[in-house]
Amino acid sequence: MILLDKVALVTGGTSGIGRATAIAYAQQQAKVVVVGRRMDEGEETVRLIKEAGGEAVFVQADVTKEADVEAMVDKAVDVFGRLDIAFNNAGTVGENPSLIEQTEAEYDRTMNVNVKGVWLSMKYEIAQMLKQGNGSIVNMASAVGIVAFPIQPLYAASKHAVVGLTKAAALQYAKAGIRVNAVAPAAIETDMLEAATGGQDEAKAYITGLHPIGRIGTPLEVANAVLFLSSDLASFTTGATLLVDGGFVAQ
């Protein structure tokens, strides 16, 4: 078990990739702190972990609020004594694809969740990890944080920012024993994808066709990449953004 007795925190752990990763951490014997805004879904993730013999706790928090973020890290330490791993997964796609029709409120929402939320999370996670002398952080970027995608300008901007934050933090804390990496999925079969496509088969078929591998990815496939970056299997890897994109960026 590659995460035996480690303590791992997952933001956005209420569904999709976050839930799949929380469960994958637990299967590798980590103790898991599941973080999210939706209590019922968060408690469901905890239930699934416990049913599989794992150990987990849910913390209700909004990653755009500094007091909530500080409290989620404090809760991890209060319950499990330390924080070894963090997957900063909470994010939003946004609603309007047209740049000239997007509102200031939508800009603020996208940047607050996707960028400020990652920055705040790292701020308090790294502070705790510095006390311990080690730690591993994985941030949720995106394939459109590497290349642009015309119908998601704000989302693309926010995910490019996550890649930059990841690189800068990795360099700043490399000698402190803290690794910081990112994972960059393309289209993944989640509720977020359903919302982005409006559940329309034609839209999903178009998006599927953008991936040379010929299909959309699964949350577990992203979770496996996060698991690798989180663990000592990636002990010489920091500042990297790992694509899990079915060849989307390679075209």
TrEMBL record:
A GO molecular function assigned to this protein is:
oxidoreductase activity
Alphabetically list the UniProt keywords.
Answer: Oxidoreductase
> Entry's PROSITE patterns?
ADH_SHORT
Q: Which domain of life is it from?
A: Bacteria
Record flagged with keyword Oxidoreductase: yes
> Could you list the residue ranges forming a coiled coil in this record?
none
Q: Which family does it belong to?
A: Belongs to the short-chain dehydrogenases/reductases (SDR) family.
Which named protein is this?
SDR family oxidoreductase
Q: Which organism is it from?
A: Drouetiella hepatica Uher 2000/2452
Classification of source organism: Bacteria, Bacillati, Cyanobacteriota, Cyanophyceae, Oculatellales
